[in-house]
Design goal:
It contains 16 helices and 28 strands. It is α/β, with parallel strands linked by helices. The strands form five sheets. It has an eight-stranded mixed beta sheet. A hairpin with a 4-residue loop joins strand 7 (164-168) and strand 8.
Length: 577
């Protein structure tokens, strides 16, 4: 008869995680959650525990089962309070001040396994529904230190074929990977230069500092958050599409990460201004309203739901032009307060009035120089997070970035609408006596006309709203990428391409150079998940996103498309007539 501690003992825990920076575990079947809760309890009580515990698990039921054991009731209640509405892909739950991250993998098991980007320390595969392709996918995640445990002997031949040396231990088998894949991930000293101290730069600085990296943060202006991150308030909410495309999935993951990040900053006692009080996205016309109703049927109401015009009026206290999507977990924040809170760590050295005019790659890493050639900072890792200013520093990369000048307008605080709205324009909640509306393009540097268009778009969203007066406007550039997705990860090195390029992994990378760029209008939705993804890549931690989403935001994706197009054109020329 098994005991509650058999699950841990089979994996030689807690001894195997003791003294490590991180410990990564995969459980194929979450079941009633007993295995995870036991691991959490043991890890929490162990003074020698790993600094971080990453726990990945596949789930078959949308809801959390009842508590499996009385002694786990407290942890079960805490987990239940954070249990998300499940949608396709990975759902991350931050516990123990983000030192423990539980990732729920919802979907077809093989697809989820192939989506995982991690090096496992332990894998519990006690299920009898696996085939050779599952074990091959598992092998890709293994190292020589990965311990595999299974209570089903039916997969013994497949495990052996995949390179695992298993030992029969009675009611289960366990073993190591005897011929693991070669680990090609670069290893970096924990020191980085980050250029740009807006939402992108401060977010990646915070995520790396939390991993004990030393950060030299260089900002050209005399204060941080001086560009688009200096807007009075901004909104964040998921997007949705009929085919649940990459932007939609990234926005869901991003908003979930943003909410947990803001809560973590607040719980640390830092002054950060935000609210999670719901957002209504108003349909632009009747045709879009029909499409939005159709898409809403495929998502949990906790993510979004369609509300008709009359219901929307009850929510807002004002009648919108159309019905729309209600995002109950949509929120707002003052971006500058987030940027300041991100810099609380002593590991981050901020230097304002430090305009980087040139980057020099050396044998040891990177130098950032000012206009006179003086060295501003030296580090083995470089991260450009300064929006389109990166184009001047790295012109040879031909990064597909552009910018548009946008206007936001302040209006006096009002009782209605009761919630934020988006659509053709947007309006935020009141903050320090003002609400923020926007964000129309500034044409010909005519800020007055842009301000009037902001007011007109608000009136179009809420036709019966009493006219409001502007309390002032500001203009700033919004950075965009060619495909409206951010650029996050290792920068390509097009000068060293030899031969045909068919996949992202074949593109050489600029040694020690990374980017977090192109957040566009979704800075609050994407900055935190982008920063976490990049920090994980740099630190060798498990990725927070599925592999296809990482590919979708890889800075080298545009170079890959260029080479594929050239190859297709070349093949078309030699094709027999």
């Amino acid at each position: 008869m098994s005991t509650p501690h058999d699950f841990l003992a089979r994996h030689h825990l807690p001894s195997r995680w003791q003294g490590k920076d991180r410990f990564v575990m995969l459980q194929f079947d979450f079941a009633n959650g007993a295995g995870f809760l036991q691991a959490w309890q043991a890890w929490r009580q162990d003074p020698q525990r790993s600094q971080r515990l990453y726990y990945f698990t596949m789930i078959n039921e949308a809801g959390l089962a009842t508590c499996p054991q009385p002694e786990l009731a407290g942890l079960h209640a805490e987990l239940a309070s954070q249990w998300p509405a499940l949608t396709r892909g990975f759902q991350r739950i931050h516990l123990e001040n983000s030192a423990l991250i539980l990732t729920l993998m919802w979907g077809e098991p093989l697809a989820q396994l192939r989506s995982l980007n991690a090096k496992l320390d332990a894998a519990d595969i006690s299920t009898d529904s696996l085939s050779a392709v599952h074990y091959k996918a598992l092998w890709r995640l293994s190292s020589a230190n990965t311990r595999i445990v299974t209570r089903h002997k039916s997969g013994e031949a497949h495990l052996k074929s995949a390179g695992y040396a298993m030992e029969d231990l009675g009611d289960y088998q366990a073993g190591q990977c005897s011929r693991p894949p070669f680990d090609k991930a670069p290893k970096h000293p924990r020191h980085a230069i980050i250029i740009g101290a807006g939402l992108a730069g401060t977010s990646i600085a915070e995520r790396l500092a939390a991993r004990d990296w030393k950060i030299d943060l260089l900002e050209a202006q005399d204060e941080i958050a001086s560009q688009s991150s200096g807007n009075h308030a901004g909104l964040f909410h998921p997007s949705a599409s009929r085919d649940d495309n990459a932007p939609a999935r990234l926005s869901r993951a991003g908003c979930a990460e943003t909410r947990q990040h803001l809560a973590r900053l607040q719980n640390a006692g830092l002054e950060v201004f935000f609210g999670i009080d719901g957002i209504l996205q108003v349909a632009k016309d009747d045709e879009q309203a029909l499409l939005m109703q159709e898409i809403a049927q495929d998502l949990p109401v906790e993510v979004l739901s369609w509300v008709a015009q009359d219901t929307a009026m009850q929510l807002l206290g004002e009648r919108p032009s159309h019905g729309g999507w209600w995002f109950p977990q949509g929120g707002w924040a003052n971006p500058a307060s987030v940027c300041h809170a991100n810099l609380r760590s002593e590991q981050i050295q901020l230097r304002c009035n430090s305009h980087v005019a040139k980057l020099v790659q050396t044998g040891e890493g990177w130098q950032a120089l000012d206009a006179r050639g003086n060295i501003l900072a030296v580090a083995p890792v470089l991260i450009v997070a300064n929006a389109t200013e990166a184009l001047a520093l790295l012109p040879e990369l031909e990064l597909p970035l552009s910018k548009t000048l946008r206007s936001t307008t302040l209006i006096p605080a009002s009782d209605t609408p009761l919630h934020s709205l988006t659509g053709s324009g947007y309006i935020t909640p009141a903050f320090k006596g003002y609400r923020c509306i926007g964000a129309t393009e500034v044409r010909g540097n005519d800020l007055t006309s842009a301000e009037q268009r902001n007011l007109a778009e608000l009136q179009a969203l809420l036709p019966e709203l009493a006219p409001v007066q502007s309390a002032g406007s500001r203009a700033c550039f919004r950075p965009n990428s060619l495909d409206r997705l951010p650029l996050v990860g290792a920068l390509p090195d097009p000068q060293n391409i030899n031969g045909a390029i068919h996949q992202l992994h074949q593109i050489p990378r600029l040694k020690g150079a990374y980017a977090l760029l192109g957040l566009g209008s979704r800075g609050l939705s994407w900055a935190m998940i982008a920063a976490e993804a990049l920090a994980c890549q740099l630190n060798g931690d498990p990725a927070p996103l599925e592999s296809d989403l990482l590919h979708a935001i890889d800075p080298a994706r545009f170079l890959l498309r260029k080479h594929r197009q050239a190859l297709n054109e070349q093949q078309a020329k030699i094709k027999p007539q």
